[in-house]
Write a structure and sequence with these properties.
The complex is a heterodimer of chains A (170) and B (294).
Chain A (H helix, E strand, L loop, with lengths): L1 E2 L1 E5 L2 E5 L11 E3 L12 E5 L9 H4 L8 E6 L9 H10 L5 H9 L11 E8 L2 H10 L14 E8 L10
Parallel strand pairs in A: 1-5, 5-6
Antiparallel strand pairs in A: 2-3, 3-4, 6-7, 7-8
Chain B lengths: L1 H11 L2 E2 L11 H14 L22 H7 L3 H8 L7 E3 L3 E6 L4 E6 L16 H15 L6 E15 L7 E15 L2 E12 L5 E7 L14 H14 L7 E10 L8 E10 L5 E6 L10
The chains are: A alpha/beta (170), B alpha+beta (294).
């Protein structure tokens, strides 16, 4: 899991620190500089704003090397003490149900700010349309599929109408 | 086993980049500006926030087998029968149930009801049907009806596409999602809620309930509005919020601390967004007890 401030930089998720380090050692990360799974990482979870905006779905697959799934948020996501347990529950649940449904159920919050929703998105890749959907809806921490034979299809699951800050409604 | 360990290790490698690198320098003007902004949106509260009745202990008779039986997970019922008493989680090929009574947490997943995209779709329940099925499921668990707050019916979607196409090739409505918040004393109980996924046949495919036992703890009486604003101001400065941050606030209840079974206290829940990751934090409306050194 990576937790960082996030933004949509011309259709590419980028993560930065709120406070820059003195000098030029600032940490940052960008989707178009990632090859996820090169050392056998299967799943990556992004606790970061705009990390899985709908306009990025058509290009997120480019960052997949041997990874299976990346989960993030469409629009802004919130941080706070009261939200930490949602990550614990997600991790617990992903051993019994699909990673994607665990991500949605533990991070989808209607009116989190009083008016904006929090909109989780789970995203997978696969070699065929049937393969990617099967991976998205059935892969679990205790039911890990083999690496995709190729990255030819992507699939995302989300909540229709979810309306976050800093993005349009899904 | 080694493979599983490697996967788990990778999945849980928490690479948390520090969002705040060092303590914020004192800035009285910034704090004053933030307090003025918050004062404009912070609702008024009174002694009525101290009069919340104790919640119903709905988890008293709850167990894994009972939840599995309620939602037709026969394999899990059988597995639970052979598990030690007090087992919190049972997992089979067809689904799993986890019951954490101390945290008021229930999770149920029926893997046999995972939708099959591409199969002939069955029309999903409409909003009224979704709400009715969701309410029924909460009732089956024993959630007190008087604590059920605002609900929402939405649809879980799946979109897929070839990497050769810029847009999705297919978009499918796969499940209805009923979500509900908890209210006590006509106020929200923050972080206490439920989500239920419902199939086209009206079956519960999965549910998650976070509904801890509610007991109010107000040993020290109410703080003044000025005291609450001042505490909120300290937090906002500590979090580097800019004076132009967009603030929203709501009065409700939150756990007094992060311990399991924590009592609840009345709080102002404040949302603050200033262009970076928005923050959700609570400020107690009550004074801590003299013995509380947290």
């Amino acid at each position: 899991m990576i937790a960082t401030h996030g933004a949509d930089s011309s259709g590419v998720w980028s993560g930065t620190m709120r406070v820059d380090e003195a000098g030029d050692g600032n940490c940052n990360i960008r989707r178009d500089e990632m090859q996820i799974g090169d050392s056998d990482l299967e799943f990556l979870h992004l606790s970061s704003c705009n990390s899985m905006d709908a306009n990025q779905w058509g290009s997120w697959w480019r960052a997949f090397s041997r990874a299976h799934q990346v989960d993030g948020f469409h629009g802004f996501m919130w941080i706070g003490n009261g939200l930490i347990s949602n990550y614990r529950n997600f991790a617990d649940d992903a051993f019994g149900g699909s990673i994607s449904s665990s991500w949605l159920d533990n991070h989808y919050v209607v009116n989190i700010s009083g008016s904006d929703d929090q909109c989780p998105v789970a995203y997978a890749v696969g070699s065929t349309q049937a393969d990617v959907v099967n991976r998205l809806l059935n892969e679990r921490y205790d039911n890990v599929f083999g690496d995709p034979a190729s990255v030819s299809w992507w699939a995302a699951t989300y909540v229709a109408g979810c309306d976050p800050a800093n993005e349009t409604a899904l | 086993m080694k493979k599983l360990f490697k996967i788990a290790a990778a999945a849980f490698s928490l690479v948390i980049f520090p969002m705040i690198a060092h303590a914020a320098p004192p800035n009285p003007q910034q704090k004053a500006a933030l307090i003025r902004s918050l004062d404009a949106v912070l609702p008024v509260w009174g002694a009525e926030v101290l009069r919340a009745p104790a919640g119903v202990d709905w988890t008293g008779n709850l167990n894994v087998a009972g939840v599995a039986r309620s939602f037709n997970l026969s394999e899990v019922v059988e597995l639970a029968a052979g598990a030690p008493a007090g087992t919190e989680g049972v997992k089979g090929k067809t689904g799993f149930v986890r019951v954490d009574k101390a945290r008021g947490f229930v999770r149920m997943v029926n893997n046999l009801l995972v939708p099959r995209i591409g199969a002939t779709p069955i029309p999903l329940p409409n909003d009224d049907q979704t709400n009715a099925i969701g309410l029924k499921a909460l009732g089956q668990l024993g959630i007190p009806s008087g604590e059920i707050g605002p609900s929402n019916a939405a649809t879980q979607m799946a979109a897929d596409g070839s990497v050769a196409s810029a847009r999705p090739d297919r978009v499918s409505a796969i499940l209805r999602l009923y979500s509900v918040d908890r209210n006590i004393n006509k106020l929200p109980v923050f972080g206490s809620n439920a989500v239920i996924a419902i199939t086209g046949r009206g079956e519960v495919q999965r549910l998650k309930v976070q509904w801890p036992m509610f007991k109010l703890d107000v040993p020290g009486g109410l703080l003044t509005r000025a005291e609450v604003l001042d505490r909120a101001g300290d937090t906002m400065v500590d979090q580097y919020l800019r004076a132009t941050a967009v603030l929203k606030a709501e009065i409700g209840y939150a756990p007094a601390d992060n311990t399991v079974g924590s009592p609840y206290i009345p709080v102002a829940m404040i949302s603050a967004a200033d262009g970076q990751t928005p923050l959700l934090f609570s400020v107690p409306l009550t004074k801590p007890s003299a013995a509380d050194d947290r």
